[in-house]
UniProtKB/TrEMBL annotation:
It comes from Chlorella vulgaris. It is found in: Endoplasmic reticulum membrane. Belongs to the EMC2 family. Component of the ER membrane protein complex (EMC). The keyword Acyltransferase does not apply. PANTHER family: TETRATRICOPEPTIDE REPEAT PROTEIN. GO terms for cellular component: EMC complex. Keywords: Endoplasmic reticulum, Membrane, Repeat, TPR repeat. Residues 101-209 form the EMC2 TPR-like domain. This is ER membrane protein complex subunit 2. It is a peripheral membrane protein. It holds the Pfam family TPR_EMC2. The keyword Endoplasmic reticulum applies. Part of the endoplasmic reticulum membrane protein complex (EMC) that enables the energy-independent insertion into endoplasmic reticulum membranes of newly synthesized membrane proteins.
């Protein structure tokens, strides 16, 4: 089975097309969600519960409990407390001393607004294994849910010192630092994230935006480089990247004048970006074209 977004979309359509999806469709859909780490709460809750209700005996033992955990988490996020409780109890009964059972039980305590019980449970598990990735990430989630973003970022930093290849954790760390307005730390996390997700345009854009926010000639030039990469990846279709190149050019123009001019390449890129931006708005949103031209004029690009 191929693991990609297109296959996931195809399976989603199959689920929507029938009132009683086949076992293979249900199983493969949940596998795709797990493999791609997609957050699809409503569908995972609905169709995962259906798979367990109708076809649990057809699953291997390992996959049966993987699905239990997957659906339990989705059910908690969806607020389906009864379904979540039943699944958590099943996992706890099967693995009474397991870290996964403790994680799910702690998450259920969080759902029921008893964070002290959840924290006590997590602390007990960390006494057994201070490097337990599952529990450490739940502690991060608990701190974040309580609004303690600084505490969450500290725990996540400690986690990433051990689990350096967890790109989801790098993404969460970047998000935390952005909320804390710690932009330099966010840049570091986003650069690490791009090592694991090099073709994801949204991550390139977020890194470029963060560098632009940091400011200064070095950061504006770096931001321009990432915006340019997005323009190339999107074949000139990404408006945010086109605007970003123009904005960086405007910020750098004063510095270049003070330094005695600029290279032809530095002038050519924003000019081409501005032309492409006008072309896009002329076709797709002509009513806003005067605003775009006004922006480009103010930036010295028109």
């Amino acid at each position: 089975m191929a693991v990609d977004g297109a296959e996931l979309a195809r399976l989603r359509k199959e689920l929507e097309a029938t009132q009683q999806p086949a076992f293979a469709t249900l199983r493969d859909y949940l596998r795709q969600v797990r493999a791609l780490r997609v957050r699809d709460i409503e569908y995972v809750t609905k169709y995962g519960a259906e798979l367990l209700a109708r076809h649990s005996r057809k699953l291997t033992l390992d996959e049966l409990w993987e699905v239990h955990e997957q659906v339990a988490v989705a059910a908690m996020e969806a607020g389906c407390k009864q379904l979540a409780l039943r699944l958590v109890q099943n996992v706890h009964k099967r693995f009474p001393e397991g870290a996964r059972a403790s994680r799910l039980t702690g998450m259920y305590f969080e759902l029921m607004h008893t964070p002290a019980e959840a924290e006590a449970l997590y602390a007990k598990e960390l006494e057994k294994d201070p490097c337990n990735a599952i529990i450490l990430k739940r502690m991060v989630g608990l701190r974040r849910g309580q609004g303690d973003l600084t505490g969450a970022s500290t725990l996540l930093r400690e986690y990433l010192q051990v689990h350096t290849t967890d790109w989801v954790a790098w993404e969460e760390a970047a998000d935390l630092y952005l909320q804390l307005q710690m932009y330099q730390q966010a840049v570091f996390c986003l650069e690490e994230l791009l090592l694991h997700q090099p073709a994801d345009i949204s991550r390139h854009l977020l890194l470029a935006d963060t560098l632009y926010t940091l400011g200064g000639a070095h950061n504006w030039r770096a931001a321009r480089s990432y915006y340019s990469g997005v323009i190339e990846l999107s074949k000139g279709q990404n408006l945010r990247a086109l605007c970003g190149v123009c904005a960086c050019a405007a910020q750098l123009s004063g510095i270049r004048r003070g330094a005695g001019g600029s290279s032809t390449g530095e002038e050519e890129l924003p000019r081409l970006a501005g032309e492409r931006l006008q072309q896009q708005y002329a076709v797709h949103c002509p009513a806003k074209l005067p605003l775009v031209r006004g922006m480009l004029k103010a930036q010295g690009l028109l």
